[in-house]
Amino acid sequence: MGFMDKLKTKFQRNEEHAEDVSEKYKEGMKKSRQTFSSKINDLLARYRKVDEDFFEELEEVLISADTGVATVMDLIDELKMEVKRQNIKDTTEMKDVISEKLVEIYYGDNEQEIESLSLQEGELSIILVVGVNGVGKTTSIGKLAHQLKQEGKRVMLAAGDTFRAGAIEQLEAWGERTGVDVVKQNSGSDPAAVIFDGIKSAKSKQADVLICDTAGRLQNKVNLMNELAKVKRVIEREVPHAPHEVLLVLDATTGQNALSQAKIFAEATDVTGIVLTKLDGTAKGGIVLAIRNELQIPVKFVGLGEDVNDLRPFDAHAFVYGLFADLLEKE
Predict the structure, then answer these.
(1) In this structure, are residues 19 and 11 in contact, taking their beta carbons and an 8 Å threshold?
(2) Per residue in 240-267, pLDDT tens?
(3) Sign of the C-alpha dihedral, residues 147, 299, 66, 35?
């Protein structure tokens, strides 16, 4: 059974959960798929044999999906090796190889559960959320809080973005919407002090998870990174081995700019995972692979719509299914 058949089996004929996942990714990745699938289809229709010209055009297709030049080069090398190994001559066999290699590029050598959150059992887990203003950071925090609460966890929020106008109020609105307590101080307060209060409050209320919002003024890069370092020191001092996750929120619609932001934050904080918002609003879904391959940071959540339930745990198989769904259904 080829890889595309395995994907089809997993997401078309499987249990209800897989169906729900596949539909979400299929719908959420419509823009990326329309661009990607049509270009791949066109390429396969125009070329009968797998040669250098075919690979050159495939390279262009992958780069246009914002997969990143370095990642595309790695992928093309892998594909050429696979073509040689399997002695593939006909381009019709390439869909299978491309889809399999996209998943492999994401997972690397082992397919362990890199997407799941590292939460502590029976004690307070702290999630620090970072990212520039305008990427959907506060909304992602609200949706994540909702998700964790649905899983039966006692969740609290700390309003550590004390500088952006309306940030505290926005987080409070999400707290009310999801039924989660928000620890805050006045606008302009020291963010580290807010996080300190949040930890004290979360401990006294025996919360399972404290999600901390932070400022995102990248124009003051040095100040921002110093501030994040201070926040992290306070967390480490109050809770050993915390923060248990540092999630960087990026806007998928900004493509390579998101990759640049990821590099800046990865230098300043130990980013453990990416939350990629607005994946449903871009045709450049390949940025998922670029981030993973170039920075070795897993994408833990993706935004596939506006609804409170549309922040989804990332699944590389479902992602590739979302890219190829039209081609799979034609077969």
Answers:
(1) yes
(2) 899 999 999 999 888 788 888 888 888 7
(3) negative
pTM of the model: 0.88
